[in-house]
Amino acid sequence: MSDEEAPLVVRTEGGLSVSYKGRLLYSGREPERLPRRIAAACDKGPARLHLLPSPLLWHGVAELLGGIGPGSAVLCIEAEPALARLARESLPPELAADGRLGFIESASAEAAAAAALGLGDFRFCSYAALSGGEALHAELYRSIAKALGAGLEAEWRNRAALMVLGPRWARNIFDNIAALPDLDLESPPRFPAAVAVCGAGPSLEAALPFLRRERHALSVVACDTALGSLLAAGIRPDLVVCLEGQAHNLADFTCLGSRSVSLLADLSSHPASFRAVRGAKHLSLVRITASPFLDRVAAALGAAGVPYLDSPPLGSVGVHAYYASRALSGGPILACGLDFSFKAGKSHARGCPALLAEERRLSRLTRWPGQFASSFRDRTLRLDAERSGGEPGLLSDPILLSYAELLEERALAAARGGDAGLYDIRGLGPGIGGQRITLDQAAELLRGASASPAPKLEEPDGAASRDSARTAARDAALAIIRGEIGRLARLRAAMHGESPIGSGEFRRLVEESDYLCWGFPDQGRIARRARARGDEWPQDFLNRLVPQAEWWALRLESLEARLS
Predict the structure, then answer these.
(1) What is the rounded end-to-end Cα distance, in angstroms, of the chain?
(2) Positions in the chain whose pLDDT score sits under 50
(3) Which CATH fold would you assign to the domain 38-154?
């Protein structure tokens, strides 16, 4: 880089500023005054990550560190190489020694997320620009701040879900592992043509005639809640996706009667989901959280040849159904019923269990009480014209909108990777990352894309092959359960003082048996703190861990006896 392109530190009235590319990056008069004022106005709340772009001469950073709340930290980022060198050279030693301050030279949201992880455990991300260097890459910095904020929000949402449902998911996973020999799992199907992903939102009703008319050119993948609406319209899906860990969604399958349908259910789904449906069974393995236990399960299933679809945690069955469709198809995907919004008094399409249950309660004095109650909850909000797709009167809530954003993120990432597009035929609702088209345009798309018939799922293999698969599944299930029994035996012996082990070995056993702590709100924080403090574990954590290990040891021994 030539001298003309290098930043210059210049003395101005009241302090030092920086000249770069023909402009001053601090004020020409009292350059430290504005950064200090901005720093003084920072969010004083606890557990905040303060993202600071382009720190330059570090004006205001000491004041920012002095004003942040407990558990908070400051992450400085610089995407301009010349300014990054200046910041490194100008960093005061007292700031460099402060463990609450981080500095990275990057233009990557991933690098920022990794650096933030090393600074602490945060609840929110705030953004403060203390210098004019931010303007050189303002859009980039703000996109990184947005990505960090969304990542923290998703992490806490997942943490809350794990605290509430984690123990149930863990029980389901082990029960389903013990049932593997009886499930006769088949490899997930492949869909060479276009796929319609159907959620249970009200927009599904308008799409039903189109789906029925174009069924010859479409594969249909349905969320479990949408099954009743589709069957009532004479459409039997090629695949039904189930993600529910509780028993609530079992009512979705009562509409089948004696009919069969192919099911893709997760290993964490309620075990009765596999038994409630006749037809081919397919397995997904959602990585509910970063888990050594789930890594071991995936490795054991893969080694035994048990087929499954690996999946990230997506929260919503609709987003999960899109992910599965994208993984199983190379063609365009049409989205309908994935509304993430609704109108007052009607949350689902006709034929869904939520509406059918309400219909059974109707009387002269009782009119849709549950539907209207869901329309006026505390966090329900009215969508503006931009987020409603132009449909007036649409309602949603923060959770539904977060699922829409997650689907949009997945769809845009798939498009950047060169996959066939997502087409939004809902006609309403917040954006989901797909091109909005009408049903007539969708019909034209199908005629131009492919006229091949919807693929048929593979028939089960012969009896000999099924017997071999059952044996392999049984062996894999026994290996997983016996491995956990042995791990728990060592952990219990250490906690009871029967077989002392080193602190590093104890930490490894706790972290490897992470499902014991899925219901603990402080699981990740305690483990990180223990690692940082030389494997010193809080007594209250150990007091909770002991009964969990005892209960799971008994549970796993009963599952082993069932398999043996």
Answers:
(1) 71
(2) 1-4, 451-464
(3) Rossmann fold (3.40.50)
